[in-house]
Amino acid sequence: MKDQQTQLPEEFYRLMEELQAIDFVLVELTLYLDTHPDDYEAIQQFNETAQYRQHLKFSVEEYYGPLLQYGQCLSYSSYPWNWNKAPWPWQL
Predict the structure, then answer these.
(1) Among 25, 59, 69, 89, which one has the highest count of C-beta atoms within 10 angstroms of its own C-beta?
(2) Residue 87, helix vs strand vs coil
(3) How far apart are CA 53 and CA 67, in angstroms?
(4) Signed CA dihedral, 16, 18, 22, 28: sign only
(5) What is the pTM of this model?
């Protein structure tokens, strides 16, 4: 029996590309905020982008099914940037 790959609507691929772009923005903002923890506007941008990403992920999953095997939610940051504070999860 020949293996057939499911063809998904073009919209799915557009949404996945948008998720990748948003993930890139979040990584870049994280790197920036690690060295500029008092940049309130960048923290706001990070939190807004994280919220938008979560909304987009839920929209994709509603129509096309789960993207990950397990749940993964983004955490927001307070002011000042608090992701660079110990302990890290692997230090507990």
Answers:
(1) 25
(2) coil
(3) 13
(4) positive
(5) 0.75
